[in-house]
Each structure stands twice: as C-alpha cells, then as structure tokens.
# Entry
Amino acid sequence: MPRSSGRVDIRDIARRARVSTATVSRTVNCVPTVDPQLAKRVWSTISELGYYPNTQARALVSGRSRIFGIIVSQITNPFFPELVQAFESNAVQHNYEILLTSTENDPTRMEHAVRRMIERRVEGVAVMTFGMEEALLDDVKLRQIPLVFIDVGPARPHVSTIRIDYQHGIRQAVQHLASLQHENVAFISGPLQLKSAMARRQAFARSKDEMGLEAREEWIVEGDHTIEGGMAALVRLLATTQCPTAVMCSNDMTAIGVMRKCYEKGIRIPEDLSVIGFDDIRLAQFMLPPLTTVQMSQAELGRLAFLALLTDVERLKPAPEGTDYPLRTSLVLRESTAPITNQKRMLAVRRGRRVAE
# Structure
C-alpha cells in the first residue's frame, strides 16, 4: 500500500493496526510489556504509513529526550567544527540528537544557552569552552543533569572532566627547539583568565626550566587566541631588547597570525624564526610552510565528551566525585621549525627595515 501523503498521527496508526492508541504509544516508547505480536503489527503499520514519532511527545512519556547539549566558545574558530562533528557522529550512533550553541565568550549568551537546554530537557551538557562558568550552571546542577568540562570540572556527582596533559606535548616542543640550538624561545599565551591558557603557559615555563633555557619575562606575551592577536604579539616581541629565535604559541590561530606578520615583515620561517603552534587544527598542515604544532585531538575530545555524558546517563548510581578522562598531547613535526641561520636579518627587522630575499 502506498504511503499516505497527508499528516499521519498516532490515531491513524491505531486504526490501521487495529489496536488502541495506548498500545501504539507504548510500542513507540519501547515499553517492554507490549505483546510482541501487537508490537510487530504496530511497527509494520508505522513503516507502511511513513509515520515519524513526535520526539517531544516521546520525551514526555518516557522521561528521556535523548538530546545532549554541547556549548562551544566560538563556532567560527577552526578548532571547534571537528570536535562538534565527532560529538555528533557518536550521538547518531547511539540514537541521540545534539543541541549546539556558541557563547562568543559572552556570559549572557552562556546563560541563555543553559536556559534553552533546560527547556529542551537535555540529558547532559558538554561545556567545551576551556573556561569555567560555574555560577551560570547552577540551574543545571540543581537538576542533576550530567556535565562534562575541559580541565576544570569540580569533583562532584554528575560531573566529568577531560584532563588534558598539556605538559607532555609542550615539553616535546621545547625539547625539539633546544635540539635545534634555540636558546631565545618566546611564548605567546592565550587570555590568562582562562585556566587552560594559564596551564599551557605554566607547562612552557616548567619545560624551559627543565632544559635550562633562559626565561625572560619580555619573551612571555599574552595573546587572545586569534590571528590578529598573534600578529600583535609578534610586533611586541620584535620590540624587545633581544629578539627570540623561536616562538611557541598557545594555539594554532595565534601561530598563523605570527606567520602572517612575519610574511609582512620579510621574516623567513623557519630560517629566521621557528614557529610552533598548539591544537593541530586541520588548517595547520596547509600553511606555508606547514606548521609544526602540539596536537590536541579535537576528534578525540569530542568522542570523550560524548562518552562521558553517555556513561553518566546510563549509570545506576553516579560516581561520588565525578569521573576524569585523560587526553594526551604530542608534538607533530612539520616544516616551520629549523636551526636559525642568520640573526642579522632579525636584527634588521627589529630596527624596522624590511629585508629583501
């Protein structure tokens, strides 16, 4: 029989299958007490008529929305699309939908996002913002909705934390620069109000100490994790009393900004200045030269975030102090690092002269 061209509802299914609407409802919501033969008849009719159950109505009946929320700070940042894609791919495999929102680093938008997720009866929220907006999430906590954070989740029930091992990858990066005979190594951090940015800066400082490299305050510059911030940070580094020969950046967007400003000023990468990023966004491998960077897998981050929420939802009893999930970082060698070949060129640039090839 052909599929109906009109709008099909639960009453149409009940009439065609010769059962009550209550039986159809229980079948759609997978209530185990429904007679198997009746359930088979109902599902056959659903397929025949092309009926799609109302997910909101099902949520009211079952108490399960099968929706997870995911909050990112800036969807236009190339770091986040792969993370979201991995999260959604895992959601589809487990018959979940996702509700995505971007805060643009605006506390008001964060508050509205959380309220909207509560209204949609989400079963859990992944807060992928690399910052802790704990005061804005009280409503979620009071409802005992599972949460997952990066780095900074509190030790409490229904909270999972993805702990990123910044130290491992950053230590590899500093060791790599030291092996290339770089002693004047600068670092451009992210906004230091972000705990993740502070953690990366501290990991860099510890790694320099371990290698016995000189630590100058003027070589530690705060950026904002944007291309423009990387460009501005390099200008500040060029104005220091002694130019660094290598720069490590708190994220790849900053490193791309550094590379752009180097292009404008005639600084060759890596011959005059070695550059290392952090994150390993997809764009990094297509830079000229391809960017050496510390990989923090966005796909694995998205997978772990979904796994944390799903595990918490399916637990009969929450873990008293939440659950930690480790994520390791590692150096990816490409072509933006090399031994420095001519410090006179950097001196000329610092004095404001563009050096010809």
